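DM from R.C. (forwarded with permission)

"hey, sorry to bug you on a friday — could you get me a structure for this? deadline for the figure draft is monday and I only need the backbone to look sensible"
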Amino acid sequence: MMATAKNTCLSESTRASNPRETDSGQTSGSDSDVPNPADLLQEYTELRERFQRTTNALASAAHDLKTPLSILNGYVELLQSERLGPLSDRQRDVLRDMQTSGTRLQQFIQDFLTYSVLETGGLKMQFETGDANQCLSEVCRLWSNRFQQRTLALYFLANDKLPVFPFDSPKLERVISNLLENSFKFTQPGGTVWLHAEPHMWDRRTGSQPAASEERRRQNLAHPNSVKVSVSDTGPGISPEFHLEVFDDFFRLPGNESQEGMGLGLAIARRLVNAMGGKIWVESDPGAGCKFSFLVPFQPPAAAAAGKGKNR
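My reply, with the result:
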């Protein structure tokens, strides 16, 4: 009995000192199976560098396509003008299809070039004092013809309460254009899209801070610190569970996988808004259309104004 007890104790002691043996007799992992943090960091760095090289190579290829595509689109416009001779109705239809395809390809190339700049940290912000109404009006002018061709109504009314403030006009135009394109793609012919901008008081208090009183809210409304831009449409709407995911890179809503484009429009809009020190969100329910809104502060953050920081 004593010998048996001794052997049992030795067996338990041996198991305790050997982490590879379990109570069931199976072996478990040893310390050598735990990844080395330094190795993980090196692997991540190598993968990141490889990804950036691939992104840069694809961006270079996309950039090389811009010039020949611009030439082709220029010839299409020349033919459409009939300066080289009259066109038949069939020829006009063919040229219109060519122009539409060329515009889509241009947007595809521009999206990828913008994405590559954002992903590789090469985004440079240029803030200059300007009129946001003029910026929005110009975007509407550029899109009005395409909306008319699809029998979509596009409404924008300048807001004289908007002050002049420093912003990056090309980046702001790109954000609005991407939101309009999203509405254009998903709103059925005969639908309506509204573009609206207004002064807004952006209260950035954290959840731990007390809520503002009614008096303070009234004072804040009288002293806005940002512009709120919204694009609303009568499209199919988006389920609440996808309200965050729609801003992810290459994301497509279930059932829209065959939709043209790369799924980068809203992701690029989010990153550009973040680079301007703002935020973007969507309000929508299935069958009730969408309302995409974003805020841009009147005073851009120092990091954004300096063109620093990569935004996610």
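R.C.: lifesaver. The two ends are 69 Å apart (CA to CA).
me: no worries. DSSP finds eight helices and seven strands in the chain.
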